[in-house]
Design brief:
The complex is a heterodimer of chains A (274) and B (271). By secondary structure, chain A is an all-alpha fold. Chain A is built from twelve helices and no strands. Chain B has two domains: 52 residues; 201 residues, Orthogonal Bundle (MetI-like fold). Classes of the chains: A mainly alpha (274), B mainly alpha (271).
């Protein structure tokens, strides 16, 4: 028998329980995937048969080479103002998001919270803020506030509060408790304890997180215009409505370049920090 | 004068701390100045306009959000289920493609930083390209529906997953690989018995994490016609049906919170 061979006998098999568990989880995942495939009418075939249309569509995004210079030359200057507005929205959202997140960070951290009730209220609030994606916040706020950059800035503020306070309170909960205890033992008040024991420990990490959130906000601010919240996304939506695909292609290219540049800048700044 | 004694016990602030303090005050002043500049040049509506808008929208909004329309619950739940399925398939698609690409971006398998550079650059480019723009492209090219959303999510997820996967591959312990080779195993054995067992838990955990992100992303893909709950939501937003909007939002938030809790429990047990 093969089982008597030295090679096979030498490799022990994993215990039955863990093998069963592995097979069971694989079966569950496979079942979910099959149901998902059926329910969404996911059409792999259409992708391959539609591939010709797909590439033709890509072709329409780019103007013919002979007209590229004049076409892009007239378009690009018109994109400057919406692009500036996009960055303004991202900046305002990050600024006020950071400002509002600061008190929530300390309210939501177990080691600096005032009392359990306010801690849980803060945590639930942050969970709700984060569960709703930024574009959705913008879509909800556009009918409430006036169409334009204002709902965009408010949407990014709300979403930034959610992420920043969550990341911040995780950092606060991981600090060295020594200074905290020392200041409390010396009779320092709540604010003094936070300022002298917590802030010095988290400052560098928090600045890095703020830059990270700015990065996220730039990415969001280029698209929230799709629902009417200002910035270059709004211009994109107009071009789409006019079926002006060369315009759409150029805007997509500009967005890509800007996001790439801001990302690189932010990664560089963060690497200098820590 | 007795009050001066305890202050003497505190040593003077060291120079590097003072320098940092000056630096951070400088940064704070600069960012406030930039904010003032941005707010002054931004195309903001007048307070008067905002207030009349709020006076008109807030009462119906409050009425709608305090009385969610439960009759819409089945529709909202089914749409959210479709969103969930989209996220499953998008993550799976992204995972499979990222798995293949990650080996082309792993330094230790390719034998050199330069050889992995093109793969890594490709991953950065994919990661930077906004998902919703991919969705717009797929909707325009392949028609509206969940397939466009799944494709957008699948392609976009490659960037994140490929990076994580290649990082994981770069971090594996070479010991088991050498051991199997020394015991006479061939390339397939090395891959199956030393690479796969080492990377599998990390891969699965990050796949789940990406799934959590994709579930959130999938709720908005419907805004551009790429399937999921965003479609019914954007219709109601344009008609300001706040009682129905609040119902949809309750379903989105509730669903995401529950799935997040389950997923993070599994992730903790995996790694």
């Amino acid at each position: 028998m093969a089982a008597d061979g030295p090679g096979v006998a030498a490799i022990p098999r994993p215990p039955l329980a863990s093998r069963l568990r592995g097979m069971l989880s694989l079966a569950i995942v496979a079942a979910v995937v099959v149901v998902a495939y059926r329910q969404t009418d996911f059409d792999l075939e259409a992708l391959f048969t539609g591939a010709v249309d797909f590439w033709r569509f890509f072709g329409r995004l780019v103007p013919p080479l002979s007209e590229m210079g004049s076409n892009w030359g007239t378009y690009l200057p018109r994109l400057v103002a919406p692009l500036v507005e996009t960055l303004q929205i991202a900046y305002v959202g990050t600024f006020f998001g950071t400002l509002l997140a600061l008190p929530l960070i300390f309210l939501a951290s177990a080691n600096t919270a005032v009392d359990p009730i306010s801690m849980w209220v803060a945590r639930v609030l942050l969970t709700v803020l984060r569960s709703i994606p930024d574009l959705l916040w913008a879509a909800i706020l556009v009918p409430i506030l006036v169409v334009g950059p204002l709902p965009g800035a408010v949407a990014l503020t709300l979403f930034s509060v959610g992420i920043l306070a969550k990341l911040g309170s995780e950092t606060v909960e991981a600090i060295d408790p020594g200074p905290l205890e020392a200041l409390r033992a010396a009779g320092a008040g709540r604010v003094a304890t936070i300022v002298y024991a917590v802030v010095p420990q988290i400052a560098a990490t928090m600045v890095s997180y703020v830059l990270y959130v700015f990065e996220i906000n730039v990415r969001a601010s280029v698209i929230i215009g799709l629902v009417g919240a200002g910035g270059i996304g709004f211009t994109l939506q107009q071009r789409l409505n006019f079926f002006d695909y060369t315009g759409v292609g150029l805007i997509i290219l500009v967005i890509f370049v800007v996001v790439l540049a801001i990302d690189a800048l932010s990664v560089w700044a963060r690497s200098r920090l820590i | 004068m007795s009050r001066t004694t305890p202050t003497l016990a505190i040593p003077p602030t060291p120079p590097h701390v003072r320098r940092n303090r000056v630096l951070s005050i400088g940064v704070a002043v600069l960012s406030v100045a930039l904010l003032v500049l941005v707010l002054a040049t931004m195309n903001l509506p007048t307070w008067q306009r905002v207030r009349t808008g709020l006076e008109r929208t807030l009462p119906p909004l409050w009425r709608g959000f305090t009385n969610p329309d439960w009759e819409l619950f089945p529709l909202a739940f089914n749409a959210m289920l479709e969103t969930f399925y989209m996220a499953v398939l998008g993550t799976l698609l992204g995972g499979v493609l990222a798995f293949l690409l990650s080996f082309l971006a792993a330094r230790n398998l390719l034998g050199g930083t330069a050889k992995a550079a093109p793969g890594k650059a490709l991953l950065v480019a994919i990661r930077t390209f906004p998902e919703i723009l991919l969705a717009i492209i797929f909707v325009a090219a392949a028609g509206p529906g969940p397939t466009a959303g799944i494709m957008a999510m699948g392609i976009h997820s490659i960037g994140f997953l490929g990076k994580i996967f290649s990082d994981v591959i770069e971090g594996i312990d070479p010991g088991p690989m050498e051991a199997i080779r020394a015991a006479g195993g061939n390339g397939v054995h090395v891959f199956l018995y030393s690479v796969v067992p080492q990377v599998l838990p990390e891969f699965a955990s990050n796949l789940l994490y990406r799934f959590e992100i994709n579930l959130r992303a999938a709720t908005i893909l419907g805004l551009v016609g790429a399937g999921g709950i965003g479609g019914p939501l954007i219709q109601r937003l344009s008609f300001r049906r706040w009682d129905e909007i609040s119902m949809i939002l309750i379903v989105i938030v509730g669903f995401i919170v529950v799935v997040d809790a389950i997923s993070s429990t599994i992730r903790r047990r995996l790694v």
